[in-house]
Amino acid sequence: MPQESLRAFIQRLEMPRYRANQIAEWLYRHHADSLDQMTNVSLTDRRRIAELAEVRVSSPTDCKVSADGTKKYAFTTDGGDVVESALIPEGERMTLCISSQVGCRVGCTFCATGAMRLRGNLSAGEILNQYRSIPEREHITNVVYMGMGEPLDNLNAVVDSVELLTSPHGYGLSNRRVTLSTVGKPAPLARLLKRCDVRLAVSLHTPFQQQRRELMPGTRGYDLNELVAMLRERAREDRRRVSFEYVMLHDINDSLSHADATAQLLSGMHTRVNLIPFHPWPGNDMQPSSPARIERFRAQLERHGLTATVRATRGLDIEAACGLLATRRPQTVQPQ
Ligand code: SAH
Ligand code: SF4
């Protein structure tokens, strides 16, 4: 519950206003995991709160560790679905990649999460629990919404969770350390940006609108130029505010003419393009671009004056790399 909702909740119960601050302190400073720990809240008030609200931490139900140090945590939702996050240590940094949905309805043809279709939205609590419940929490320096799901398709819960991560009444992380990855549908994106200020990583994947709609069917009906114009405005002062992601698919979007058109689309924009090696998965016949082709593409973008980097693949051996989270389907009972 973001602070404003918590205040309204306390007010409805006709409790003193300062209760909301006391509770937030217990939750986000002292990491209380039950109402019983909140000893400066009277027992009567705790009982009344317990009739309507719940304080709960759900521990991960599984943890896999990659040879490169990446960890993949799995959580079981109340609905019995599995949701995953990845914890990626990189030098001084410790990045947690969290999910906002179980599955996704955008249906990108290269993404294993998309192939699951949408199974459900996570609540703000379920999103934050991925951060709150893991033993490394104190060491996390960055949080990225790059796991399962499209954040814009679960807008309210995502906004609430961002607020709790970044607010001084919440976990107090700097909003420069929170990045949200999205396909970037202009209207919901504008609504999100009105309500929270985070770094954006926008999944571009091709500069051609028609091809983008084929690769990312959920972007049909949205205009790519409108999106880029909006992002251009946002990136004006700081190149770290908006970056683009581009998954490198052999012979699909990795040609030099794709690089030229990408540079043209983003020309003059203060931004960075992050090239992601494609991670193949069973049941999908797309091929990753070779490292040489990725480098050729990167160099071409730079020739046009764009900053372009290649994202390191992490956690491949435990299926924690980009696009591979929670491909597992719930167990089905085999007929006898
Ligand atoms: N739905 C959001 C955030 C989650 S996906 C989005 O699409 O931006 C995070 C990133 O992983 C996206 O850039 C996505 O395109 C990329 N991705 C998806 N499947 C992939 C795969 N198989 N290999 C590499 N990257 C992939
Ligand atoms: Fe959804 Fe992102 Fe996967 Fe596309 S890449 S299907 S938007 S999770």
Account of the 3D structure:
This protein starts with a helix and ends in a 26-residue tail after the last strand. The chain has a 10-stranded mixed beta sheet with strand order 1-2-3-4-7-8-9-10-11-12, covered by helices on one side. A two-stranded antiparallel sheet has the order 5-6. The chain is built from 11 helices and 12 strands. The chain has 2 domains: 3-50, DNA polymerase, domain 1 (Orthogonal Bundle); 62-318, TIM Barrel, CATH 3.20.20.70. The protein is globular. α1 crosses α2 (18-29) and α5 packs parallel to α6. Residues 330-336 have low confidence and may be disordered. With 336 residues, it is α/β, with parallel strands linked by helices. The structure holds S-adenosyl-L-homocysteine (SAH) and iron/sulfur cluster. S-adenosyl-L-homocysteine is lined by residues 104, 110-111, 146, 150, 181-183, 203, 245, 247, 276, 278-279, 322-323. Iron/sulfur cluster binds next to α4.
Provide a quick synopsis of the model.
This protein is 32% helix and 18% strand. The chain is built from 11 helices and 12 strands. The structure holds S-adenosyl-L-homocysteine and iron/sulfur cluster.
Helix content: 25-40%
Q: Report the strand count.
A: 12
- What is the rounded Rg? 21 Å
**CATH class annotation of the largest domain:** Alpha Beta
Count of structural domains: 2
The average pLDDT is 94
Relevant CATH superfamily of the largest domain: Aldolase class I
